[in-house]
Amino acid sequence: MASTVTGVYPCYENQFKIGSVGAQTLDSIADCTAFSVAFNDGVEEWTPYSSEGWVRRLKTAKGVTISVTAKRNVGDDGNDFVAGLAFKNGIESEADFEWSFPDGTKVKFTNAVINIKALGAAESTNVAPLEFDVMSNGKPTVTPAA
Fold it and tell me: Which contacts qualify for 5-8: CB closer than 8 Å, 24 or more apart?
């Protein structure tokens, strides 16, 4: 059955979950306040003689980076998990990440690289930040809305 969601929607209807690579369940991340998405495409260009100077192109690679701004919430499983990756390197800094769209579509990034950008440091009267990038590491699994 197709989704009944139509029209515009507020961004907060996007939801995220994170957890250890291969975990059976993923946890929501408390106090996320903003996110942005950048698609990083690789496009090869060439100009054959037969194109009379017009460039030909083919997209040959794709990557996704989701930048998340949140507040550090000690005791929340998802928030604690992300913060716990701050001092890790290599495959220890990877996680499974799921993005749920308002229409029910889900995109799961397996072995995503989690790049912590801010953790707890700000002005004395600010709420402690937790900012990070989720960087695709291979092709994600896209499950269309049911």
Answer: 5/102, 5/103, 5/104, 5/145
By the 10 Å C-beta count (0-12 exposed, 13-18 middle, 19+ buried), 50 is classed as exposed
Q: Determine the pLDDT at residue 1.
A: 47
Tokens of 83: 């913060």
Q: Which of 89, 76, 102, 97 is nearest to 140 (CA)?
A: 97
Outline where DSSP puts E strands in the chain: 15-19, 27-28, 32-46, 56-71, 94-100, 106-119, 129-135, 141-143
Closest alpha carbon to 100 in 29, 38, 33, 31: 29
- Using CB atoms within 10 Å of the CB of residue 35, give its burial: 0 to 12 exposed, 13 to 18 middle, 19+ buried: middle
Whether pLDDT at 59 is above 90: yes
The backbone torsions φ and ψ at residue 54, rounded to the nearest 5 degrees and listed phi first, read -85, 135
Q: What residue ranges define each of the domains in the chain, with the CATH number in brackets? A: 11-143 (2.30.110)
Alpha-helix residue ranges (DSSP H) falling in 1-143: 77-83
Residue 12 one-letter amino acid: Y
Gap between the Cα atoms of 94 and 80, Å rounded: 15
Share above pLDDT 70 across residues of the chain, in percent, rounded to a whole number: 97
